[in-house]
Amino acid sequence: MAYNRGDLIELFFKLPDGEQGKPHPAIIISNEEVYLQDQGHICVMITSSSVIDTFSFKLEDSMFNKPLSKTSQARCHLVTFVMEEDIIKNGHSNYTMKSKSVDKMVVHINNISLTEQ
To answer: 23 and 54 in contact (C-beta within 8 Å)?
Structure first.
């Protein structure tokens, strides 16, 4: 397994706005057991958009092993499963979100996107 929970990766996201889609950074939120079962990862998309709404989870430099290059947010409703071979190799591979921050984000994703309101 080349990637771990909290690692930033890049993958192709087809977005719900009807655009063709493009590569976006994402954070792996699944654990090693998911990888061992199906050789893939559950990820949440990151954007640098300044639009803040219910599905935003603001990412702060203190949440990572080193400062991010720009202001970003996780899009809590854009969660996907990705096979390791579909991860785009790039410069995001040196960033890792701290475990407690991943836990906090996953709780937020669950509360906003997966729990009946």
So the answer is: no
